[in-house]
Amino acid sequence: MISILGLLACLSLAAQTASTSTVAITAHRGYWKGNAANSIDALKKAQDFGFWGSEFDVHLTSDGVAVVNHDDTIGGVAIHDNPLSALADVRLGNGEKVPTLDEYLAQGEKSDKTVLVLEIKIQSSVDRTIELTKKCISALKEHGLYDPQRVIFISFSYDACKFLAQEAPEFTNQYLSGKKAPSEVYADGINGLDYHYSNFQNHPEWVKEAHDLGMSVNVWTVDKPEVIQEMIGLGVDCITTNAPELVRELLNGAETVIK
Ligand code: MG
Description:
Oligomer: single chain
Distance between the termini: 13 Å
CATH topology: TIM Barrel
Bound molecules: magnesium ion
């Protein structure tokens, strides 16, 4: 069974050796146009539209429940400092309540095509960030999603990435901050990059350097046509975007899909 990382590496190799290449599209916080970011319905729409990936963010409540949200505060409730019950009355823009990771993965299970791009958010301490990472692994196992073909991990927490490199080396594991050269990340056992596009504009050589090390390359959050084209030209493996339909149009069929 080829892993997602292996698949991306093969595609990268193909890109280097042939004039045609494909790029995966990840819907940033789901496909949330006319919807609510990080909602279960935004994940469902990303699945329905058949995008390669759907990204989402995970935090830990004070009573140890993983929930899906970008910021560490929602509806005036500081997630890290409050139990899940404090979120009971908070609603997203589309009327959904804040999803628990468990509820979110119940939708994730329903597509075996759209990869779940799970961002582990930095918590109030390294210990809490690692606790969250462990909870994510457990939840994925409970849902039958602990599979390198179904899930990849991303994080700004270098500690979380290093932990995953030890605990889940078969998974694609991409560091987000953009501050480190590929060789430095690789030396710590982390097998992928997911950097803001400005980092690759400043260091276009990092894409090839990463590929030469067998690392996958993802880029965020690319919404402007000229930047989308620039990143396609650099040969990234995946584009994370709030405009997945536009990226699809610009790729004009050169889109990575999971069959
Ligand atoms: Mg995110």
